[in-house]
Amino acid sequence: MQNIFLIGFMGAGKSTVSQVLCRKYGMSLVEMDEQLERQEQMSIPEIFEVRGEEYFRRLETQLLAGLQGQENTVISCGGGAAMRQCNVDAMKKSGKIVYLSTRPETVYERVKDCHNRPLLEGNMNVAYITKLMEVRHPKYLAAADVVVETDGRTAEEICEEICSVMI
Predict the structure, then answer these.
(1) pTM for the complete prediction?
(2) Which end of the chain is least crowded, N or C, by CB within 10 Å?
(3) Is 149's pLDDT higher than 70?
């Protein structure tokens, strides 16, 4: 089976959905943020603080390029991975891109107690999340082969929808 790249805003459910997809369909999993943390031996907030956001974005690009040739894998992308066209191009070469769309209020409820989201640290409110989502939404839409709404749905329901259009 071809690869499935899950994109969307932080808190959209990419990690949860990717785990269910892998379990249900016997696919491999690449959790981009976790892989980059292991590679750099730092948390995402530490990478941002010590090396900067641009450095982190280059790591994402390198990781996606390195996935060329891999098959039957679900890749849970970082929230900003689809902001670079070269990343989108790399994803499209080796699979389909699924945009997990969600409302800002849902994102806030899911991430309000997290401190591993450097772009939200100090701005943990619905207004800021809305503003950032408005910038990213057109890029997510442009990249996506499939858009799946996640609000008020279980990971199982989301996976069933993804599989009904992908498999």
Answers:
(1) 0.91
(2) C
(3) yes
